[in-house]
Amino acid sequence: MALIKQSSPHTRGQTDTTKIMQTVILATIPGILTLTYFFGIGTFINLILASAFCLIIEASVLKVRRRPVGFFLKDYSALVTAVLLGVALPPYCPWWIIFIGSLFAIGIAKQLYGGLGYNPFNPAMVGYVVLLISFPVEMTRWPAPTSILTDSQSLPGLTDALSLVFGFASPVLLDGYTGATPLDAFKQNTGLMADNLYASQAIFREAHFAGAGWEWVNVAFLLGGLFLLYRKVFTWHAPIAMLASLGFCALIFYDGGSNTSGASPLLHWFSGATMLGAFFIITDPVSSAVSNKGRLIYGGCIGIIIYVIRQWGNYPDAVAFAVLLMNFAAPFIDYYTLPRTYGHTQSRRATDKIDTSQRR
């Protein structure tokens, strides 16, 4: 009897990758719109420039490598990297910042290792960390959300925004719109009680449960992440583990608001890039752990590292650093958490012990 030749049920083709990437981009729309509402049109400019740079760099490298350009561009992976990098960068940052970040994300972190599926590190976070370390002033110049601006203030319009981005206007112009982020304001606290700090900072006075503007940005990315969970783009293990460990650490070191207290769990969950990181960054299937048990360990460790850097490190936010550090550890986690091959009754460690005893 002839056997039917059939591909394995777990095999995925370009069509599946394309649909997944399109779904991820769709899920970022609520967060992008919320960012634009609170921080101005600079977010859209970031996205347009990052998309153009990432696609051009990807096509150029593929051409040099003599790979089919159209085939690989159609998987939307470069566009996903561009979107994640674009929303992570401060609005109205110079165009060359976006170009350098795109170059490292696509040219170095992705294509240098062989392209999609071979990159050991999250490309968008590599580009972001290179920029954060190299250009700290430009990367920390976040505009204040519109909800805390006075009646005489307003964020730059399209003309002023383009002038800032392309260098026709001095960056000093943006200084009148910038302000501390919630995590930065809490980190730079100089001995004030939490209630006094909240009363002295507009970013907290106009907030409902975290930081003005940032709380709703994180809620929007949370909704997008729940949509991805509903579509089964990834499992719940890594995001929930990250948020649980981050919240647990915050709860331990939060004493109700003394002058030595850490920020509350709500502030950690709904400020900075927490929800973006939990649902759009650490869930990268290429650079994260593979098994469900491994994803729990992977996400839990990321949450702990985020809190440690936020509380005692030099940076107010730490999602990118935590992700890259755990990208290093993902193969190690997989080695000890991947399930045994079907039909095998002994673990690899037990087999090694038997082989050693036989040699003796």
Automatic annotation (TrEMBL):
It is found in: Cell inner membrane. One of its GO terms (cellular component) is plasma membrane. Keywords: Cell inner membrane, Cell membrane, Electron transport, Flavoprotein, FMN, Membrane, Phosphoprotein, Translocase, Transmembrane, Transmembrane helix, Transport. The keyword Transport applies. It comes from the Bacteria. Signal peptide: none annotated. It is a multi-pass membrane protein. Its cofactor is FMN. The chain crosses the membrane at residues 20-38, 44-62, 69-89, 207-229, 236-254, 266-283, 295-312, 318-338. Its EC number is 7.-.-.-. It holds the Pfam family NQR2_RnfD_RnfE. The modification FMN phosphoryl threonine is found at T181. GO terms for biological process: electron transport chain; transmembrane transport. Part of a membrane-bound complex that couples electron transfer with translocation of ions across the membrane. The complex is composed of six subunits: RnfA, RnfB, RnfC, RnfD, RnfE and RnfG. PANTHER family: ELECTRON TRANSPORT COMPLEX PROTEIN RNFD, ION-TRANSLOCATING OXIDOREDUCTASE COMPLEX SUBUNIT D. Belongs to the NqrB/RnfD family. This is Ion-translocating oxidoreductase complex subunit D. It comes from Marinibactrum halimedae. The lineage of its organism: Bacteria, Pseudomonadati, Pseudomonadota, Gammaproteobacteria, Cellvibrionales. The gene is rnfD.
